[in-house]
Amino acid sequence: MIRLQNLTLQRGPQRLLEGAELTLHAGQKVGLIGANGAGKSSLFALLRGQLGQDAGDCQIPADWRIAHMRQEVDTLERLAVDYVLDGDVRLREIQAQLAVAEQAHDGTAVARLHTELDNADGYTADARARKLLAGLGFSPEQMERRVGDFSGGWRMRLNLAQALMCPSELLLLDEPTNHLDLDAILWLEEWLKGYPGTLILISHDRDFLDAVVDNVAHLEQRKLTLYRGGYSAFERTRAERLAQQQQAYEKQQAQRAHMEKYIARFRAQATKARQAQSRIKALERLEELAPAHVDSPFDFVFRESDKISSPLLDLSEARLGYGEKTVLEKVKLQLAPGARIGLLGPNGAGKSTLIKTLSGDLSLLAGHLGCGENLAIGYFAQHQLDSLDAKASPLLHLQRIAPGEREQTLRDFLGGFDFRGPRCDEPVLNFSGGEKARLALALIAWQKPNLLLLDEPTNHLDLEMRLALTMALQEFSGAVVVVSHDRHLLKSTTDEFLLVADGRVQSFDGDLDDYARWLVDFRARQAPAGTAAAPAGEKTDKRAQRQAAAALRQQLAPHKREADKLEKELGGIHDKLAVLEEKLGDSALYEAARKDELRDLLAQQATLKTRESEVEEAWLEALETLENLQAQLEASE
């Protein structure tokens, strides 16, 4: 078991744990939660032996093997599958010793090492590594690519696969879902449910925690409290305790009174019926959850547009994609005020392509996109975080879009996003990904949109901010289109789902459980079909087979050229970004005299990263098309 007794842990002047107690038994699966900066990652470092306690005891069985998900990549030249296999350190040691023994023609050592290799499941290691990679969304072709060829998010997937590959009695995972799409998250859930060792998991995804863990360890006020059950059970238990406090009660009653007043006023009005229903749902959730989050630092709403048009957007007979590459076709979508749509679909199917087209960031290849006269779009995407002015503070960012507003009004608004006091005036240069995402959302919320287009808005956000965003979206009366791997956000803020798959956008008649089942069927359909035995007496038309194979080979050529062209362009972008990042690493660049040069470099970086995202998506689509055609060709020959 793991036992922390009277533990004190300090980093610099900050005391993270003081007199903390925690006992975990072998095989337990525990979610570790707490505010950002509370010490969760430091506790992981302690368990891994990378950090020592300042007082008390930290006991872990000496023979336990510990696996963890690294946050950095230290080699770019390894092939992806080899990089994952490197996670099994003992396997690599045996293989290295075996190579030496074979070169020395030491038969005794060779026999012994082959036995050790068998005991370490070495003969199945390559297949197991490929199965992990496939579950995390890698194609067979990608498994043979260099680590350096992948973007940062896909490198984190490789680090996750490497951690899962490592035989262990204790597995430490820090935000493993941050760079995963929904289908990869569902696969990871099943894998972790079957993991036989002790799991400690840091995550801001409440549905993921509910599915995987059987206990929650809450780090709060330098103490660790263990709750039985998943995250929802933790919320209920903690709410029961905090609801006794007068402060929690008063805040909850104020929120309830506000929502009930709105419902009573607008429930009978047809034009406000959807919004009233949204408040009813929020009210139902508020009864159970608000007391558990009384100490949340976030409290904001999306300021709503004074004018509205119907429809807001009208997309008809549209073909969407990049350059000559079509991703989606015959797309028809009309967005009315109050529409609340979640986009579902496998990785690379075109969800982000659709969002970018609706936002105007991507031009139509064909068809028509009509915009309402009073359309006001609030668009959130991850690449926008890199477009923030690194030298400007949150207050200055907001002053630029609201130059006539009182400073105190802007400060009060930013306070709802937990930018308070000196933090409101600090440049965003050293802000975390979560802080940048909160600022980007604050800028959108201020500008009174009547249509929100949100592409993975919860990436980097902690549990409290995710809940605040969910509540703000429930209060928002405009239209919402969201792509998210956070199932709780999707369930709580959308009324209908659209399925983006197989080059089409169609209504999805079902819930997220139905979608999980759809994904299983989709993967089965995507798998190359085996050659079925022909019934007795049935003759195969060999000439027709040869003609079909020849036609497929002709189709392969242009797709191969397109994939090679995109790969070359992507490599060039990576090289340019590397040069820019080296220049941005020069501390002298941030002197006042060079502010124009810094602004230009940051603008170039933002443009290149946007193009990198577009080219990478188009390249992955081209590779997928190639693989499908190749599979058809192999089946026909």
From TrEMBL:
Residues 549-583 form a coiled coil. The keyword Transmembrane does not apply. Keywords: ATP-binding, Coiled coil, Nucleotide-binding, Repeat. It holds the Pfam family ABC_tran_Xtn. PROSITE patterns: ABC_TRANSPORTER_1 (PS00211), ABC_TRANSPORTER_2 (PS50893). GO terms for molecular function: ATP binding; ATP hydrolysis activity. The keyword Repeat applies. Belongs to the ABC transporter superfamily. ABCF family. YheS subfamily. PANTHER family: ATP-BINDING CASSETTE SUB-FAMILY F MEMBER 1, ATP-BINDING TRANSPORT PROTEIN-RELATED. This is Probable ATP-binding protein YheS. It comes from Pseudomonas knackmussii (strain DSM 6978 / CCUG 54928 / LMG 23759 / B13). The lineage of its organism: Bacteria, Pseudomonadati, Pseudomonadota, Gammaproteobacteria, Pseudomonadales.
